[in-house]
Amino acid sequence: MAERILVAYATRYGSTAEVAEAIGDELRKVGAEVDVRPVDEIRDLSPYRAAVIGSPIYMGKWLPEPQVFIEKNQQRLRTIPVAYFSVGLTVTDRSPEILRKAEASMDAVRMLVNPVEVGIFPGKLESSGLSFTDRTIVKMIRAKTGDFRDWEIVRSWAQAVHRKLTAA
Ligand SMILES: Cc1cc2nc3c(=O)[nH]c(=O)nc-3n(C[C@H](O)[C@H](O)[C@H](O)COP(=O)(O)O)c2cc1C
After folding, report:
1. Is a pLDDT exceeding 90 seen at residue 4?
2. Which H or E run includes 23?
């Protein structure tokens, strides 16, 4: 029987959900049974033998929902292989220093459950549709807008992560 893997995510504007779906598709291609779900819809972890959990980065941090999810389920998550991914805009620049800073967004969840792998992917930011607060911040820091997601990076990460999730 194929192993069942959970891909759980949080998102504010949908771009991380699409990254999670792409990871799920890639895991299915290599034979896994996969559920891709928002973290706040997950009630039972018992069907899963591995989990991939991701969040967008806002002001240097993960959204609270996946952190709460990991905290609440840390006992179970410590018994299965887990991988984390972050989606953010700073990492369109793939320099080691920028990637290290973006990796710090996962420090809190790494303390709870140690992952077998982490991924950091460029995201998407459109000024239309943002909340008033987010629009104000984006204007203030003059953030660049556009879709910078790199599906090749996401897909090859998913393939590599599958090997680690199933080997552990
Ligand atoms: C108010 C605001 C703050 C952000 N802060 C960061 C940040 O600190 N680091 C980063 O890499 N990206 C940052 N971003 C970019 C988001 O992480 C990026 O747009 C991501 O793709 C959004 O994911 P979502 O559509 O799933 O919510 C920020 C975006 C907004 C609107």
Report:
1. yes
2. helix 15-29
3-class state of residue 89 by DSSP:
coil
pLDDT tens-digit profile of 6-64? Answer: 999 999 999 999 999 999 999 999 999 999 999 999 999 999 999 999 999 999 999 99
Q: Is 55 in the pocket of ligand 1 (CB under 6 A)?
A: no
Of 2-6, 50-54, 76-80, 131-135, which gets the smallest average pLDDT? 2-6
Q: For ligand 1, is residue 137 a contact (CB within 6 Å)?
A: yes
Q: What is the CATH number of the domain that holds 10?
A: 3.40.50.360
Indicate which atom in ligand 1 lies nearest the CA of residue 57.
17
14 touches ligand 1 (CB under 6 Å): yes
Average pLDDT, the chain: 95
For the CA of 13, the closest atom of ligand 1 is 25
- Give me the domain span that covers residue 9: 4-167
Is residue 56 within 8 A of residue 10, CB to CB? The reply is yes
Domains held by the chain: number: 1
Cα separation, 77 vs 71, in Å, equals 9
Q: Which of 12, 55, 58 maximizes ligand 1 atoms within 8 Å of its Cβ, making it the mutation to test the pocket?
A: 58
How far apart (Å, rounded) are the C-alpha atoms in residues 88 and 15?
10
